[in-house]
Amino acid sequence: MKRITTLLLAVAFTLGSVCAAQADGIDIKVKGQWDFAFGMVGNGVFKHSANSSDSGRYARPGAGAKSRQRDEDNFEARQRIRTQINFIASEYLQGVLHFEIGDLDWGRPGTGRQQGAALDTDGVNIETKHAYIDWIIPNTPVSVRMGLQPLTLPSSRLGSIILNADMAAIAVSSPVTDWLSLTALWARPLDRFRDGNSRNLDDEVDLFGLVAPMKFTGVSFSPYFIWGKIGTGSGFLNNYAFQNHDLLRGTGWGNWAGLDAYNDNDAKIWYLGTNFKLDAFDPLVFNMDVIYGHLQTAEYAPLALNRGNHTHAGADGWYIGATLDYKMAWGTPGIFGWYASGDDADDFRDKGELGRLPAILNDGGTFKATTFGTHGYYGISNGGGYNRVNGTATGTWGIGIQVADVSFVQDLKHTLRFAYYRGTNDSDMAQATLGLGANWYGDNIYLTKDDSV
Known about the structure:
Blueprint (H helix, E strand, L loop, with lengths): L1 H20 L5 E14 L8 E3 L7 E2 L5 E4 L5 E16 L2 E13 L20 E11 L6 E10 L10 E13 L5 E11 L12 E8 L2 E3 L2 E3 L2 E7 L5 H6 L15 H6 L4 E15 L2 E13 L17 E13 L5 E9 L4 H7 L1 E2 L6 E2 L33 E14 L2 E12 L3 H4 L9 E2 L2 E2 L8
Parallel strand pairs: 9-20, 17-19
Antiparallel strand pairs: 1-5, 2-4, 3-4, 5-6, 6-7, 7-8, 8-9, 9-10, 10-11, 11-14, 12-13, 13-15, 14-15, 15-16, 16-17, 17-18, 18-21, 21-22, 23-24
């Protein structure tokens, strides 16, 4: 313990001396993005109206026997500005600040995040996206990034479907050999309360991970392992993992507040996965992602969910996705496909278990099989409606073809794509088991084996 303390003090003094020595000679570099989007879409929520007996957070009472389901404006005009400032003290130390204003819908009143684009345009809407430092431990090849930073797991061009978000974390990386590197990380997505007045201070979510990139001639892959502890008072199950990010969307099992209230122990989540890239036959390139994930909640009172006598609930699923591309002078034709496990009605009814791969956090731009109906849309357009057909690929399979990098005008490239996919969830999950009138809930459509896109 004494040696560890001495090392930390040495690192702190080293950082302090570097900052002081370079205070008068810091290089500042600024870069950013200005995005504007103008578009029209019809029935972006894929459901115009419903019977008055339908319930849900988007149902609005109306005259007669019908009620209006949530819809959206057909025309949108929006913008987003991102500014990144790098404070470079030396080749061993730099700080990064990244701010964002947006996405701002033109004309939306109010103050706060994504507001302030109405008359007078004086909303308080500057967001902190990243705030971290990069530094190298003196006389070593070990690099450290600490602070509010982007975290995403290795993936193919289809994107990381379980973790792609900004959060507070420390990531330590180092080469081991010419072909092997290691990255260890600790992240704290949530720490809900900080004072002693809270009745439950077991409110943190902590993630620990190890990534081992390996690169050889013509082939590379990056296996990883992620383990997480979910505190009973964190609200993660109810507000993040399930409702907001497509673990329990579509199942009607959306209110997990009971779990937070009745849990006596922390929930656990873990993943084992890798990406794989074969470019030995370049310009023919093959990519693949393989992921397995498991979530187990702590014990809870059966009355919390009214789902029989089982006292645990969880999710257990897997995913595989692959792409094959051939780069040519006029463009890059390719094929892609994926398969992800789905929910089984019997397992859900008898054990309280879901068959879909759980997600930690997918903050946009994650599943990129298509640019319409998923999070893979370009820029700040709404991707064909604020509601996505699928945001993480969980509970679906699909296949598609595309031609990328086609150009008719200099410096302007296009991707032409066709995709088809279906659900892998048991159709009883959306009908008999859950009593839903339609395969729709929340911000994604719940696709069963009977549904296709």
